[in-house]
Design goal:
320 residues; 1 helix; four-stranded antiparallel beta sheet; mainly beta
Length: 320
Amino acid sequence: MDSCLMIWSMKPQMRAYRFVGHKDAVLCVQFSPSGHLVASGSRDKTVRLWIPSVKGESTVFKAHTGTVRSVHFSSDGQSLVTASDDKTIKVWTVHRQKFLFSLNQHINWVRCARFSPDGRLIVSSSDDKTVKLWDKTSRECIHSFCEHGGFVNHVDFHPSGNCIAAGGTDNTVKLWDVRMNRLLQHYQVHSSVVNSLSFHPSGNYLVTASSDSTLKILDLLEGRLLYTLHGHQGPATCVAFSRDGDLFASGGSDEQVMVWKTNFDADYGEAVKPQKYGSSVDGTHGTGTVSILEQRLTLTEDKLKECLENQQKIIQNKTN
């Protein structure tokens, strides 16, 4: 809500950087697959691409005619999908920040949009109470899932790409098979709105964040609630697993960012515990004050090009 983007180092006593540029609340943020870029979307209707360095340079593009609620990179880092209160989903090329196409069938605010792991599909969730599945090539809506009884706040693909999970204002979490378009699992574990969710990289667990101030970890193989985590004072607004699944982070209306360690093989009750280095967004740190750097700099086309070329090299090296 302070219009800033914070980049935190997970090492104790390392500095966090505050990036300034957006003119209104920042509602979504994501690292590119290579880690060389960060995308953010804001209530100021723009999307920014940042280089996560000391200077915090960014380039801005006018993305939508309404608040941007979701940004997501494709797994190859080449495309970006954004979702907005203007009821549209837009797809962009990252390299040129060039608009490619719009998906326009939602009839209310679009809260979230995600690429499938293989980049062929896009899933979106909306205040029109639907989750829609899109074919990126044909740009057509393949299916609408209408089982939610309220606004659908968040949706994401399972790491396999075969199913999706969504949560919303009906307090439920639902999972569908996208090959047969059928409901697989339904969880009524929260007592208030589900704001966010994230799959563990193994695909076996799902973590959810709710306005009931709790996080819940669901065991998808057993189809049951595994843990309820109390930490936030007030609504838990976002949650995400790290890429290796060893950690997850949650944020809330209490202005706290909490980092949790996972250990799903440990004794019951010991599997999830907050890390001592969890930091709050006001810049304080468990072991001392975090230095804040404020910079207003424009990202040049050359800088971004160089950054993307590095990203491509990393992807090629991994492939080789």
